[in-house]
Amino acid sequence: MDNEELEMLENLGEFKTLVEGCEFTRDKRFIHIDYRDHKEYYTLDSSGRINGLVYSRRKVSEIDWNLISRCSTIKSFCLRDCNLTSMPDELSLMPGLVYLSLPYNDISSIDFDFSIFKEMEGLDFTSNNLSSLPESIIHLKRLEDLTINENNFDTIPTSIFKLKSLVLLSMSFNNLMDINAEISNLSNLFFLNFNDNKIESLPDEIGALSNLNFLLIENNKIKSIPNNMSMLDESLDILGLVNNPLPIPDDSFHELTPKEQIQTLISIQKSKLKALKEAKILVVGDERVGKTSIINRLLGNLHNENEASTQGIDISKLNFNGYEAHIWDFAGQELTHQTHQFFLTERSLYLYVVDAQKEDNQARDIHWFNTIKSYSKNSPIIVVVNHSDKNVNYQFDIQRYHDDFEIVDVIKTSACNLNSLPEQIRYNLGDSISTLHASIERQLPNLPGINKKLPENWHEVKNAMSKYKETQNVIDKSVFENLCNKEKVLGAPLQSALLKILNSIGTVIAYPNDFRLKLNQILKPEWVTNAVYKIVRTPSETPGLYSEEKISDILKDGYSHAHQQWLIDLLIKFELGFRLAETSDLLIPMRLPSVMPEFDRRQYNQGLNLRFNYHRIGLLKQNVLPQLIVRMHTYVDENTSKYWRHGLFLKHEDCLGVVIADEPNQSIEVFLSERNENARVLLQWVRSNLEKIEHAQIKSKENEALPYLEEVAIFDDDCEVTTGYVSYQKLIRANKRGKETVDVEIECTETGEILDIEASVSKLLGLYNKKVNNFTISEVTAVISKILLRLTDFKSKILNETEDEISDRLRESLIATGYYVKDQSRGGLSGSGRGVGERDLILTNEYGQQGALIEALTLTSLVKKTLVSHYKKLIHNYNTQGNAFDFLITYAKVKNFGYFWNKYMTNFTNFDDVSDDFTNKHALKVGHSHIDVEGIDEKRIIVHIVINFGIAHGDE
To answer: Rounded to an integer, what distance in angstroms lies between the CA atom of residue 630 and that of residue 643?
Structure first.
């Protein structure tokens, strides 16, 4: 290092070394710098010589240009946010620059001779006020990267088209109206970014860019693409077209490959577009309110007073002023309510039918409105007050629900034939069925997507599927795919999108995005619904328990064994049931007995407790506890009567628990026998699963507020009687303010008098507060290893679980152990426009700062490509904050685990087997791989934890 460099290093004492060994090739130049942090850096090459400087928020006069000019090794130079209004003349002292960056300044024009830069490969003028470039830029014969985002260009400067070496051109967030035909001159372009401009069309010549790999033109005004773009479909890896007025049939279009996107758009541009004008009308309500009679009258039939109750779902068709509606008539029996979720869809119109003869029931109304909103977002609801001829004074209180639900109309009806009604009733009601018909006509055109114009070939596929359905209960999926291919509906995402549309309008039943339910058939709705209702309505010898033989007997007519298994998976998908590990029998909690078994409550009142207070009638829906039983069945206490319709017994290690739903008081209560770590794990699992159930059912609400309050019970001295409750959130607030006690009202067990007491915040919060763990590699590894070994106790159940479900178990156990965990958050885009990936779990400190990442995967055999792919994502994409260690966890489901582990280790260099430091169990292995980190001496460690859950008996 020469004297000038030594002097420079002394001058840069307050600077931070960013990267050692950075040669500033196009692939690595400033890849680690985040300009947003306003820090200043110098960088060193592999020989330890200064080769880059980043100044931020400096005055130009503060920079020692003379010293810089004497450091001939400086190849990269950045002045960020330095209030520049022009390029500093002093830059002429640095003719050897390879990369020059002047972002976030106020440069409006450039009067500088670029010809002095003979070696220049990259220029960055992001976020200035430029509208033109000097002609001298054409002398940059070696320029490969030109970034001029966030400026004021309304045209592409013609000088750019003379930069024949250009590989990357980025002009996002400007005011470009079009792209010049001369773009074809830039034959070496690899990356082209015109996002967020005002471009209305693309030139034919864009198809000549045969080396183009990235084309980003999102957020523009492009209505069509040229046919010549088909010449790019083999070279493009990334094509960004989001937020353009293109004839895109469905948002899943953006999931297609660039080749499929181009082919689809060109095909659509050549075809006619036709509005869908088809939707589903779902008629819901309690039993015997007249749903079927209302539908029959809408269809033009006479009223039949002896109409039988609907046993499953009846489907009819009716045209409303050019809009075709598939009308679904749902069974009203309470037993069938939970199964409605299979078929409730978005973009539908709902008729909620009530009986004017029955007493006003707010809980009933809220139950149905919440059910609709849970599965259908903001679908409109018409309230139909039937039997109004029997009670003309009945008034439905729409104001009570107006703010929370999309009630668009209230219609009083009578399903009786008009001429059979007394004259006064006829006068009061008018032709109520015609009034209802007119209301439906007004609402259908407003449904989201119903007027969306789809390509003619999509309509051809839809019509063909409707014809198949007339004669077939089951349609082989290959028939649908062949139809799509024949009609040029290309690519799995678009075919799935069309299938989802057919499902939403009621043409077929299909779940294209669920791996358990894809099967290889598409199903007729009536065929599916009748089977589901047959199962849930048929009593079993042991209440709630259905063997495969029992289900086979129920569905013996018209349902193959494969279809029976599919229907069982459907019930499991929607959390209506689960298989018992030991017998594979199906347990359906809503068919369990309703009577709570006798048990000694005192043993459950000694430890942690929590009440979920729904605090408003109708908020605790009937399906919540049965669904919680499905989710928590792996923790069931086998030494008890296990579960009933409104509760279940739990066990985790030494901790016993009971969960009870109290529907009259609108609450769910949890009582545990211990206050230790096992109790915290169990309680956390209940809280987490209940939260997920409720979030799934309130997903349409903007604030996603949970419908319950969490409250801690205060018992008497004998732990037998609850004397009061205190809000968990109140305790949290008090703790943050440093208060030692809170005022709590309790009821004296002897006199019944209400007393005010001071309750200890630390004591009550101690039941639920997380202890802060040491964040060392050995402790975190030990904790994760312990949790995973504990999960092997449930391996017969875990064998059938997905990666996300197993990771949920790990996440909740980590939280209960005292760690702060975020899960599955998505990062943004890297500078190249590539996604930085998804992280499975993120361990943070109590302030939310990242500590370690956990990337998880499931393997049933050693697939090198899958393993290495996850490993590379973890070391290259996810670690944006420089963690000292991260985790790669593999959920193995293999027979020969020793062979698997030995083969696993061969995929990594610098690998140490440290299993003996953490366990003596054969089912778990731990290893470390060491990765060099540029700029620091310490290596980053990837902790490999592999846990084996074995294989299912049928796979041996």
So the answer is: 10
